[in-house]
Design a protein that fits this description.
The protein has about 160 residues and is an alpha+beta fold. The protein has helices at about 15-35, 60-65, 70-80, 105-115, 140-145, and strands at about 80-85, 95-100, 125, 130, 150-155. It has a five-stranded mixed beta sheet with strand order 2-1-5-3-4. This is Ubiquitin-like domain-containing protein. InterPro entries: Ubiquitin-like_dom, Ubiquitin-like_domsf.
């Protein structure tokens, strides 16, 4: 049986072979460093496709439009808009468009910033029904049923001075 020299052989045959083997090992080590630590890819040439759409809406609009599930319908409803007309204590009005998924607290915040009425002093009424802070506009069947019509909300509380509107 014939014996072949193997590069992985640990015991070289001569001093010259030892030296060459040592040089090869050093060369192999440097090659391994290059192959083990390749330069990281630039962000423009990334091989990773995570399926992320980074638009202003997070890429949801196209997906939601195609989604016929109950969840998709709820998301579309929450994103739909309604015009709210606030009837202020002094008889004046102000209006703003809100998304159906926004909370009563967001409406109170708008009134506070628009007319200077503190949020904690406001009570919002839809017809004669008090609107509580944790609820969203979608929690009020009267608003959901309005579909494109303006919704009037009565604001009660202390309005200091004159309104800005």
């Amino acid at each position: 049986m014939e014996s072949k020299s193997n590069d992985d052989d640990v015991t070289p045959q001569s001093p010259q072979d030892k030296e060459e083997k040592g040089n090869r090992d050093e060369a192999d080590d440097s090659e391994q460093i290059i192959t083990l630590n390749p330069p990281s890819p630039s962000p423009k040439k990334s091989n990773f496709n995570l399926g992320l759409k980074l638009g202003a809406n997070g890429g949801r609009q196209d997906e939601d439009a195609k989604d016929t599930s109950e969840t998709g319908a709820m998301v579309r409803e929450a994103e739909s808009e309604v015009m709210i007309i606030f009837e202020l204590p002094d008889g004046s009005q102000t209006e703003e468009s809100f998304k159906m998924g926004q909370s009563v607290e967001v409406l109170k915040s708008f009134v506070a910033s628009e007319v200077g009425m503190p949020m904690e002093g406001q009570q919002l009424y839809l017809q004669d029904k008090l609107m509580f802070d944790p609820l969203s506009l979608m929690d009020f069947p009267e608003i959901v049923a309005s579909r494109g019509e303006d919704v009037y909300i009565r604001v009660e509380g202390d309005l200091e001075g004159e309104t800005r509107k």
